Amino acid sequence: MFGVLFPGRSFPMDASSFAQIDSTHWVLDMNLFVGEAYDQVKEMCLFLLNEYSLPPEKALAVYVQSPGSAFQYCGAVQRACPSAVLPLLWPSPGSGQMQIMAPDAAPLTAKIGLSVEDVISLPSLNVGQQQRVEALALKVGENLFNFMQSFCTVDANRLVVPMDILDRWFKKFQDKTKRDPDYLRNFIM
């Protein structure tokens, strides 16, 4: 029905690499796949093996689960979009987010879950990309705040910064991104 590839980490794998829970759910125990370094697996390529793998109204959804957390949705493929490289944004261990797949006890290992679901019941198929953009925006904001803090003074419980601080920060930020093409990518890794 489907194939999976972890770029730079695996050869293509089919559904037999996953433990099949029932006719619509599969789980990959990341401890067996990569050990405790599950959070170093940043993305996965998921693809349908043929156009008849799923009915048109169904999708194959991907979820990730860190030890002690609930499954978190990462994205999906469907007949209209039969393959995708999905970012795996692992929840914090023990975060106990809303349980999406099954209300079992908290896992001791990280897992990737696949589930056949109705397309209309799923969030946007680009949820992983949106989460990456949000994480990047947060890191850029933190970088700006830290830069501003190094130049500020306190005046009656207010931070006072030089008027050209944004220009200075942005120039420094641009210089770093020109020198190191991976600079922005490192913000979300």
From TrEMBL:
Residues 133-186 form the Hikeshi-like C-terminal domain. GO terms for molecular function: nuclear import signal receptor activity. One of its GO terms (biological process) is protein import into nucleus. It comes from the Eukaryota. GO terms for cellular component: cytosol; nucleus. Residues 17-119 form the Hikeshi-like N-terminal domain. Belongs to the OPI10 family. This is Hikeshi-like domain-containing protein. It comes from Adiantum capillus-veneris (Maidenhair fern).
